[in-house]
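Question (not urgent): is this output format expected?
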Amino acid sequence: MDYKQKLNDLLLTTARQDASDLHIAVGRKPTLRIDGVLIGLQQENILTPEDTQGLVLAMLNEDQKQKFLKYGDVDFSYTFEDKARFRVNAFFQRGFMAAALRLIPAQIRTVEELRLPPIVHEFTKINQGFVLLVGPAGQGKSTSLAAMLDEINHKRTDHIITIEDPIEYLFVQDRSIVSQREIMTDSPSFHRSLRSLLRQDPDVVMIGEMRDPETMATAMTAAETGHLVFSTLHTNSAAQTIDRIIDSFPAEQQGQVMSQLAATLVGIVSQRLIPRIDGGRTPACEVMFTNSAIRNLIRERKVYQIDLVIETSLQEGMTSLNRSLAELIKRKEISLENGELYSLNPSELRILLERM
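Got this back:
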């Protein structure tokens, strides 16, 4: 079989079906994720070990192949005939090769097109500070982040530097200079690229993911020294995000981290993609802006009280996840069942709906 051609056929199908992901695994048909649901391609055969090996190796260059065989997994981006780009993780499972491919749309959508809260525009107007987009995997964090960075690209004359593993969205430079650095291609490691970051004269920095304390410390230092820093984290809420960052550091450093975080954090957007009643998915967002009350709670390590501040700061543009879900339910965009499924506190959501 010509595995390169087979791979191209599968990637074309993924793009045409508007799927978010393609999964290649032994013992299953190639499988798409469409609107959050996994759907096997019925016209395809069940994949054999030889098939998955052929399809995975067809995507890898020699360096990636060596890394894959040495470590058992590898992250990379794959461009298909200038038609579509994919973020790929190839890995071994039960001794067989497998891969998960995330489709990256060629066009970067705007905040409005993504149906994000209009208040998110405010994060693109700030000159200095630390902004985080959080939520579980596959909930649209990278897409929302790209929309915010591209808005800066079109409206401000800044130097934007992104550090990614791998590069996802490709920006077309407009008013800003956009330098995109890919780990293993443009720099051997996150830590090396972060160490040289401030010598590259950035105004805006995007770190693909907060992986460890060193990345977090660098992000806060960059925000402290006059830069606007964006990043993502796999956490469920603003309060949990702050706790996660503080807990990542040794006990003797946590006091300093709390002070630094209180001084630099501008806001957190926590996002979920909820199935719409009429098809597709729509975001529900918790939005937190750091005001004096939240700064004090961070310094005093009373993070558990942040949810209450968010709920009582509607006039400042903050919104809780439950309020966002309740508004979507009221507008009949999502079902009550899905709202409760994605809520972190379903009983509070029901009370909120009764009051609205």
